Amino acid sequence: MESRIAPDTTGASGQSDQPRLGNWTKTAFALPAAPIAAMGLPIVVYLPPFYANEMGLGLALVGYIFMITRFWDVFTDPVLGVLSDKYKTRWGRRRHWIVLSVPIMLVSVWMVFMPEAPVSGGYLLIWMVILYIGWTLLTLSHMSWGAELTPDYNERSSVQAFREMALIGGMILVLLMPVFIEAMEPENLGAARVASMGWFVLILLPITVAIAVWVVPERRVPDPVHVRWQEAVRVLVANAPLRRVLVADLISGVSGGIVTGLFLFLAADVLDLKNASLLILVYLTSGCLFVPIIVRLSYKWGKHRTLAYSSLFSAVTVPLIFLVSPGDLLFAVFIWICLGVNMGAGPFLFRSIMADVADHDEVQGHNQRTGLFYSLLTLTNKVGAALAVGITYPALELVGFVPGAENASAAEMGLRMIYVLPPMAIGFIVAWVMWNFPIDEEIQSENRRILSQRAAAAEGAGGNAGASIAPLGGSD
Fold this sequence. Notes:
The chain has 476 residues and is mainly alpha-helical. It has helices at 23-30, 33-54, 59-86, 95-113, 121-148, 153-184, 189-215, 229-238, 240-261, 263-270, 276-301, 303-317, 329-365, 370-398, 409-435, 441-460, and strands at residues 5-7, 218-219, 467-469. It has 16 helices and three strands. Helix 3 runs antiparallel to helix 14.
């Protein structure tokens, strides 16, 4: 089906003169984020023990396999990001990659979440690698598409906020599924829980992707210009805003990895909370509810300052964990509501800021590399999460903490310090790094003005850089 082409003009201010995206358009775009998020929790929480115990592979082998696949994912991110930028079709630059990822995801989810015992380590390794390829292709293309939906400084935050709420909503829904499965008392609880999460993705992913690619338009961007790799690397290294975002996101990933990776140890072994799952739901719900508020504040303060304030808020609230007495669920709920504020704010603001950084790079380097930039953003966050485990687990051994055992008060305090002090310091550092971030709304408007002039010149010369590819299902 041929895509209709509509003009996409940009005014002298550098902001788009085309109508703003409607809430339905932003919702339709964000929908695939729910099954994307639903993949994350099972892979971290449920799949490793399922394959180690029910599938009989053992803890050591499963640990090695998941470590190898995580490193594989890190290496494939930049490659898939470059591919996403390079090859276009009549659908545009991103939607065909998203559609292509769906069958890869469906087959691999079926094989990973519904295995027939017995399975080998090679079986798990191969299908996890394929799963990560599909997942990375889907995630990078979806984030890059969101960055290119609008050139407007503030509307980019709104688009990413819708996506963040869909992500958190997907995590909440997939967290609730084991509750219903446990109430049904199946014969094999572990397999039933994992299979239910797999079915969640199998059903929701094709539906949400179909709605998104059919309803939402894709703005046409200039064809990539061939640049020697030495020159491309030079521009990347010289890009100070990119360096700032990647550093801040890297250490934010460390903070997030500590908070999530040590949560069960803190809740069960130190705080003696019987409703640890309730705190997770409170944390996620708080993040989802605060996203619209953070969006409004970013319109007033700017994205980078709002991100800095959010990091400062997290830095001053996380030490309250020292005051939680064992069994004090009410106070713990209050603290995790506060922690949820930064959990919802940071990710979507980083993605919105990265869209502006990609425009800045295009102004300087005369090439559009949104997919590559978002692959770097996902890369730093994954590395940060991996560093969190590599740093905190040896630290727990140093303080003498043993999960599931009766620990001395000094070991329990050691766990609290490991849980609190690094995220607190990181909150202050992120605020310092992002406080005077050089791309604000004024700079972004000027960048868009320059890019609009180039697009108009290219269109006048017979190109189509200033066009917008309409949704496959018609106009919004």
